[in-house]
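About this split. The held-out portion is used to measure sequence recovery: a designer receives only the structure tokens and must propose an amino acid at every position. Recovery is the fraction of positions where the proposal matches the reference. Here is one held-out target exactly as it appears in the evaluation file.
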């Protein structure tokens, strides 16, 4: 397992570094206000994408992995694509009717492009992950962001144009359209070797009901990640959004490392679980080792950031973003909490307790939104990372607690 993790970590680290470099260039180019506007539009797009996916990515990777030799995923794949097409059309019509006076048509159609093609890419990456084609899956998932940023930054530099955050968002959507078409054509559905065997016996209704449990989980997770940007955008200013985004970007480097470990451990969980006896506890120590290793490494990185953080932010992002230093320090602490508790949230979702985990996640997500609005309104931007730490601890602790109850 550690060999697989190390191989995928190389790809993940390379793409994260590329994303960081390109994000630095974009942040310096736009400055906090316009970078904040661009980030705000991206956050809106992500939230609008939640119902588009409807939990299908998680369902696909679980079912493909679990029934690899006797399950045909094509029925779920077709249903998810139909749902995505209908949802995107409905959202586009709603924005045209109710929001056409508040924003430009170009923004609305860019939103539609981002929802549809961003979701298609996500579905394909999870299908490839389920089939153990990690490198191919990472081309769709991990490498998409740096490819997008390369395209956007490349156009800005090559043509030497000055544009605002809205126009960068439109350019980002057009680049996503172009890259998605190339990737989708390269990995055609007929070229993917589906698991052979009986066709899926689940009805469309059963598939939708099953995926809805994952929808509740993924929607709560996406809200937790993106709602802070939207709250800051509405209550404070675009400049504050830009500064907070840089702080979040620094901490997300840690989260990216955890995600690649999650990807490998997810498949190991299915292998070691014994449904007949409901046993998994003897394997937990082995599953959690990679997270402890990341926690140890992150302690060293955190100490270096504490000493040199301000200097590095000013050097790479510019003096306008220096306010991100204390925010990132607290957000990194939240990522380290995730390392401490390991794979327990994922164990619940992969071993048929996704409904219980969804209820837990939504309760905490609702509390997070309420606390974030109150803290930002009364105490300003600096209080928001503290709310993130509290929320992260609650999710991880109660996931650990539920795992101890449900499994021997």
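Reference sequence for scoring:
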């Amino acid at each position: 397992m550690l060999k697989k993790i190390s191989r995928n970590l190389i790809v993940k680290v390379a793409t994260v570094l590329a994303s960081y470099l390109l994000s630095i260039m974009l942040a310096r180019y736009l400055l906090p206000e316009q970078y904040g506007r661009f980030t705000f539009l991206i956050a809106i797009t992500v939230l609008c994408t939640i119902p588009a996916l409807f939990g299908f990515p998680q369902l696909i990777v679980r079912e493909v992995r679990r029934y690899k030799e006797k399950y045909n995923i094509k029925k779920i794949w077709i249903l998810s694509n139909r749902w995505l097409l209908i949802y995107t059309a409905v959202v586009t019509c709603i924005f045209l009717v109710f929001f056409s006076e508040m924003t430009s048509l170009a923004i609305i159609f860019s939103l539609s492009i981002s929802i549809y093609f961003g979701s298609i890419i996500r579905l394909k990456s999870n299908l490839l992950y389920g089939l153990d084609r990690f490198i191919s899956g990472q081309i769709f998932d991990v490498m998409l962001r740096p490819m997008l940023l390369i395209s956007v930054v490349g156009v800005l530099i090559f043509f030497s144009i000055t544009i605002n955050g809205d126009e960068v968002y439109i350019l980002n959507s057009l680049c996503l359209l172009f890259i998605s078409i190339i990737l989708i054509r390269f990995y055609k559905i007929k070229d993917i070797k589906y698991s052979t065997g009986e066709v899926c016996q689940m009805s469309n209704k059963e598939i939708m009901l099953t995926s809805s449990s994952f929808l509740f989980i993924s929607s709560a997770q996406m809200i937790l990640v993106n709602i802070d940007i939207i709250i800051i955008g509405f209550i404070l200013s675009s400049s504050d959004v830009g500064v907070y985004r840089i702080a979040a970007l620094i901490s997300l480097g840690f989260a990216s490392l955890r995600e690649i470990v999650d990807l490998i451990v997810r498949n190991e969980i299915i292998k070691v679980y014994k449904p007949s006896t409901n046993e998994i506890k003897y394997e937990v120590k082995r599953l959690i080792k990679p997270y402890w290793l990341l926690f140890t490494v992150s302690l060293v990185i955190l100490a270096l950031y504490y000493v040199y953080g301000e200097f590095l932010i000013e050097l790479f992002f510019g003096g306008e973003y220096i306010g991100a230093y204390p925010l990132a320090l607290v957000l990194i602490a939240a990522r380290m909490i995730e390392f401490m508790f390991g794979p327990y949230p994922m164990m619940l979702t992969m071993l048929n307790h996704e409904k219980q985990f969804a209820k837990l996640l939504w309760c905490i997500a609702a509390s997070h939104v309420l606390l974030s609005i109150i803290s930002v309104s009364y105490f300003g931007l600096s209080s928001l990372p503290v709310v993130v730490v509290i929320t992260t601890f609650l999710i991880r602790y109660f996931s650990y607690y539920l795992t101890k109850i449900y499994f021997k």
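Annotator remark: Residues 99 and 137 are 36 Å apart (CA to CA).
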